[in-house]
Amino acid sequence: MLAGQIKLDRSDTEGVARQLFLRIRQLIEQGRLKPGTRLPASRKLASDLSVGRNTVLFAYEQLGLEGYLEADGRRGTRVSEASRGFDGVEFEAGNKAAPIPPATLSQGAARMMTVPRRDKPGALVFLTGMPDVTDFPHDVWGRLLRRAARQVALHEELLGYAHYSGLPALKEAIIEHASVARGVVADAEQVMILSSAQAAQDLVARLLLDVGDVALHEEPGYAGMTAALRAAGAQCFPIRIDDEAPYQALEKAADMTASPRLIYSSPSHQFPTGRVMALEERLALLRYAQREDCFILEDDYDSEFHFTGAPISSLQGLDRRGVVIYMGTFSKALNPGLRVAYLIVPKRLIDPVQRCLRNVGAVPSVVVQWALSDFLREGHVRSHIARMTRVYKDRRDRLVDQLQERVGAWLRPALPDGGIQLPAYFHGKAKELDDRALLDAMLNKGMEGAALSSLYWSGTCSPKAGVLLGFAASDEAAIDKGVVQLKQLLCQMAS
């Protein structure tokens, strides 16, 4: 009997009628109800299951609409002939009946996946790229979100597909912020709002690069950009950051087969070294891009946090020929959960980027955009950055002091002028250690970071081993405990 094969949970929030529909559908898909099988009359099944007749009628009607059942006149309701297309394999976790072959992926996907990326859970010490989200003004942000939701509901055009490259109010607020904080020179129409810096990098790579085109990328450098360039099929050549003046010797950047179409650079706070590009190097980079008729993607990922003197202005502010695409994000200044980043593009790229962005769809919610524009205009971003700069400087100093005191025989920490992380290089007792093995051991102890050697991507440079350690998301007690554990791991690996 059909009723004997169906179990209903009346406490389930899914509802009894919905459960009945799903159970009968599952029996058909599994081949336990064959095509042509007659189902009980609705009154009979309702009685057998102790449910209302309307419950059964709903399930039968929905199954009929989806093609699982068909009415057969006076003979009642039968399983449709169309259900012969099911192979009887259960859609359940752990099913072993029919192994599913691996998916066939594109070459671009295969190239992208050659760059390993770790997920970063929030409970770990030394998380890189992560600000302190606990000190974010959540109450203020919540109030602005509620107000934004009400305002958006009053503007019919915002409930559709208008302003696909970003709300005008947010574009204006970003220009005001970036011009003061980062020396950017641009109009609001040049701003494109995206859901993340990674989405922005991917968009720029696809916009400018065909398979086989040449791109220059810092080494060591950001793995996300490595993935975007490889997915686009670019020939990547390194700008060797370990050299004394890498940007003044771009013409010698390996044996390039052609002029580059794109140069990726993080001039104000190089990832991962923290190096600041000197003025003469900036000018040399701009001259080179102008001469080769290529674009520079300037990644300004965490330059708002500067601990000594005034922050170095953006490269974009020096550009007079429209070669710099400026990329910013609120993930570091505020929190990654906002999912808001932006590009400030040269005027000749406004139309192409807008059209490509419309077809990519990597755009954050208009409610979040509205709230963020108010958050910027009311000064909350500026005050939050000022407050957190003081906090992060203290945490940087604490981490450097602890590293020098406890593991100075193994690690030599850099002292960056800003940002939210720092590199610590192997030396002395650690010279023969594997930084990737250390990182795996750290993860098992509740610590994160990045192995510096993994950020050398070309295979043509000699990697400097060490670990990149985030300090912004960990308070001083967590930093102290983390360094103690790090010392234990280093001692174990060196013994």
In short:
With 495 residues, this protein is of the alpha/beta class.
Written description of the protein model:
The chain has 495 residues and is an alpha/beta fold. The protein has 14 helices and 13 strands. α2 (42-49) crosses α3, α6 packs across α11 (366-377) and α12 runs parallel beside α14 (476-494). The radius of gyration is 29 Å and the shape is globular. The N and C termini lie far apart (69 Å). The relative contact order is 0.12. The mean pLDDT is 89.
Topology (SSEs and partners):
Blueprint (H helix, E strand, L loop, with lengths): L15 H14 L12 H8 L3 H13 L3 E3 L5 E3 L27 H6 L25 H16 L14 H15 L8 E4 L2 H12 L5 E6 L3 H9 L3 E6 L19 E6 L13 H14 L2 E5 L24 E6 L11 E4 L5 H11 L5 H12 L2 H28 L3 E3 L7 E6 L8 H10 L5 E2 L14 E5 L5 H19 L1
Parallel strand pairs: 4-5, 4-6, 6-7, 7-8
Antiparallel strand pairs: 1-2, 3-9, 8-9, 10-11, 11-13, 12-13
Helix content: 25-40%
Listing every helix as H and every strand as E from the N terminus to the C terminus, the arrangement reads: HHHEEHHHEHEHEEHEEEHHHEEHEEH
Shape: globular
Radius of gyration: 29 Å
